[in-house]
Amino acid sequence: MSIQFSRRDFIKGSIVMAVGAMSAGALTACAGRSASSSSASSQAGGTVTLRRGYGVTHGEKCFGQAVVATAEDGTILAVSVDDYQFMDATTEGLAPVPNADKDFGQGFAAGKTLISKSDNDEVYSALIKKSANSTQNWLASIQAIEAYCVGKTPDKIQSAGTDAVSGATLVDTNGYLKLIAQVAQDDTITVQGTYTGDGSDLKLGRTNAACHGTKAFGDAVSLVQGSTLVATNIDEFQFFDATTAGLTPVPNSDKGFGQGYAEGKVLASKAANNTVYSQMMKEKAQATTPWLDSMTAIENALAGKSVDQVKLSGPDAVSGATLVDTAAYAKAAQTAAQAA
Q1: Angle 121-132/138-149 helices, nearest 10 degrees?
Q2: In the chain, beta strands by DSSP E
Q3: Where are the alpha helices (DSSP H) in 90-240?
Q4: Model confidence pLDDT, tens digit, residues 289-319
Q5: Distances, alpha carbon 193 to alpha carbons 94, 132, 240, in Å
Q6: Which of 180, 187, 217, 269 is the S-S candidate for 98 at Cβ 3.0 to 4.6 Å?
Q7: Angle, helix 291-302 to helix 326-338, in steps of 10 degrees
Q8: Which residues make beta-bridge pairs with 227?
Q9: What is the DSSP letter of 33?
Q10: pLDDT tens, 58-98?
């Protein structure tokens, strides 16, 4: 395979937070799942772009995340979708996001905890079967939606009707389709790599991990072809003071999802708030490099490696990255790749 490269562009203010208007650190015990991958592409290999975005997918009590791999002609090669939602902390069997029991959890309202629906499919699905008479698991519908999008262009997905996805029973199927279509065309948070052949063997895997201390948790999504990590896209979520100037919180923070916050706090993506977060780190820890620049350098260093050889030894292992937890981000990328 040809040597791959990674690139992440951040355009302040254009993050896909408005989708709703259209409709080593310790890894989490729940391993990430494999997302739907390509069955057809008009490209005989070439550049693949792994795009990340957030939006409103299902009402006001959660926010959605989509990571979409697209070929050079815009055809979707693979999709990974997840939702994050606050739940009653006493719910039996829940696996909260990493660091929920540490400093990160101080951002929760009393009695609440934050979960990934993908990592809690059985528990969450049992709840919606009781409350909404759902006929199948949440993840089964999500996987049907992901599979439906593969091989299509964003415009075809955006114009699809409510009943277009066979095997999906979610009332908000269109909300997930719109988010996928929007992210598939957005250049805000991207990473690139190269693949060979028709891309039919490209697979996405994801995981949540504690990458940087106890005040945040990371989300890594890795694109794999055979034994090679083609590209990885890493973001991190942290609570901030709600009055922080210029901050863009995750979608639905001003609605039902925000009821899960401790008073005066909001949850935000570091990638979507690179300028704000980097300035804070410059003032508090004398950081010399913007957070996103360091993350880009880490992604560049990992692209093209064999999955079993994805390892960075320390903060000085990557030229251009100054994060002390560089090795933990690499480990999260590897775990996500192994889940593909």
Answers
A1: 110
A2: 34-37, 46-55, 62-70, 76-88, 112-116, 189-195, 202-209, 216-225, 228-241, 265-269
A3: 121-132, 138-149, 154-158, 173-183
A4: 899 999 988 998 999 999 999 988 766 778 8
A5: 35, 42, 32
A6: 217
A7: 50
A8: none
A9: P
A10: 999 999 999 999 999 999 999 999 999 999 999 999 999 99
